[in-house]
């Protein structure tokens, strides 16, 4: 009966267009990279799919024009839009089209985030949990399969083989997991959603066997992905989650309910080496640790953490106030419309903070910082958690990495939504 009720709730949730739009964004993002990698190998067709991925934030405009106007009428968003429009027509920008693409990149995440806040009562994402759990399991299983396969296996191909020229990214002797996405960062981006989703399950006190299994195997998947940033963030978020939820969670009972159905089975697999699980886990950790130690010894890891802030502080560009035009540093815009001489003059840039300053000056960087803080204050968490989410939101590259942007929105939205409805129901029940 519980399964029947669960799927009945899922069916009822489809009546709500906001929930359907959320699910569409999630499914499209999960599948778009897979289609580009394995089905539509033609680069031109793949670029069309990627363009749709850039525009997926604005699906709410199609389903709810009136609700979308609530976003534009928000004072902070209106000011930000005006700033982006000014940056769009920056005379230093190479072409009008650079600015157009830049506007989409810089505004898409904020539009969907504030649409969610403005229409939060219309979102109840909890009935979707069983479906999303199946998605998460599929991604983790795929990661385990990919990690055991050689680089030249079809499943490990990149969306644009010519661009990488056969130079696959490795962690130890294994190919870094790319999931169903186009590049390494795609699976790292998925892990952002995964950790927020696990946190939401903990808040709901969902089945411990499911929740803690997803938590554990998500960590192993982070090792297999090989991204130190993604792994560190995953560990930090899960640690903070336990700190934030410990009071409202009977941790002893929660773990006790897990031991018999899951942990003993996992231990048996580890002890007997069945299904190659022991080998996968130990290899993933050893490879990741080797990469981490190598980065520490060379100083590369420290530079990755603190380098972006030093670069911004010592910004060497000639236009630090308004920049040289939004979209000018984006590879897609450069490939289609050319590269600005000011970008060539500056040289190679990898970190997002410096790219923001180069494109829109410190004015755009400060605006993004203030907008991230402003957005965090609308979330349903306690004050300390709002600050924690604000920091994560600001430091996560969400402008030039579209997968990061989409999964950050999806993850924060579902976590906040669970908090919002649980707290709302508590208030309704209180005398």
How would you describe the overall organization of this protein?
The protein is an all-alpha fold. Helix content is 73%, strand content 1%. The chain has 20 helices and two strands. The protein has helices spanning 2-13, 17-39, 43-55, 59-63, 65-73, 75-88, 96-118, 129-147, 161-164, 184-204, 208-225, 228-245, 251-272, 277-298, 300-313, 331-337, 341-346, 352-376, 383-395, 402-429; strands spanning 170-171, 174-175. A two-stranded antiparallel ribbon has the order 1-2. The longest helix has 28 residues, at 402-429. It is globular. The relative contact order is 0.13. The model has no long low-confidence stretch (mean pLDDT 84).
Can you give me a brief rundown of this structure?
With 431 residues, the chain is an all-alpha fold. The protein has helices at residues 2-13, 17-39, 43-55, 59-63, 65-73, 75-88, 96-118, 129-147, 161-164, 184-204, 208-225, 228-245, 251-272, 277-298, 300-313, 331-337, 341-346, 352-376, 383-395, 402-429, and strands spanning 170-171, 174-175. It is 73% helix and 1% strand.
The first-to-last residue Cα distance is 31 Å
Globally, the shape reads: globular
Structural class call reads mainly alpha
Strand portion = under 5%
Order of helices and strands: HHHHHHHHHEEHHHHHHHHHHH
Quick check: average pLDDT? 84
DSSP strand count: 2
Strand line-up of the largest beta sheet:
1-2
Supply the number of helical segments. 20
Helical amount: over 70%
Biggest sheet features: 2 strands, antiparallel
How large is the radius of gyration?
22 Å
Q: Spans with pLDDT under 50 lasting ≥5 residues?
A: none
